[in-house]
Amino acid sequence: MEERIRNLSERAEFLLVISISFAYFISSSLVVLVLRIHEFELTTGRLLRGIAVEIGILLIVGWFLSVRGWRLSRLGPRPSWSALLAGIPLLIACYALYGTARFLVVSAYPAAANLATVRMVPKAPLAVVIAFILVNSVFEEALVTGYVVTVLAEQGAALAITASALLRFLYHLYQGPIASLAVLPLGIVFAAVYWRWKTLWPLIVAHTIANAIAYAVAASRAV
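Above: the chain sequence. Below: its structure as tokens.
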């Protein structure tokens, strides 16, 4: 089996990794849209399942790529204080970009402001929420940014960055029209930052803080 994996083409590797990593999340996002689900209760069971699924996918993809000759260092260097702290200005820039994108969408199509979005209702202990946020941030940035941009680098920055941003957009469709459209420029910025500096850590920090703020806001509204 390992011999067959090693003999796969680079295109076959890419398609397999993307399918394993994102098919479930993209299809789930589409189901939410089709069924018009507007509220999720983030229970302990749901978050633990999310953690298990993402860790499971990371282990499967990690094993598959290791057989293909990949090493973790290919995605970038180990964390440093400068790389971690760079996540803070990146987060601020992304909030500004998100707000601008939202404003432009609503300005062009005012009715979008009244379209339903998915409301998250946290009902899990804080430790479980923190664990989920951390795993999710590493999962997304390692795969949708690190892997996609690295593999497509030979095709040029435009394709690599666009592909990463579009994938991120697809599995965020469940969030509703405004949020999912605003994710596009965020995906472009994250991929561009990785393209330029080849480190995932600012992205992981920004993603983690953004998720923590989103969960805090959702929790405050649920009270």
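DSSP finds nine helices and two strands in the chain.
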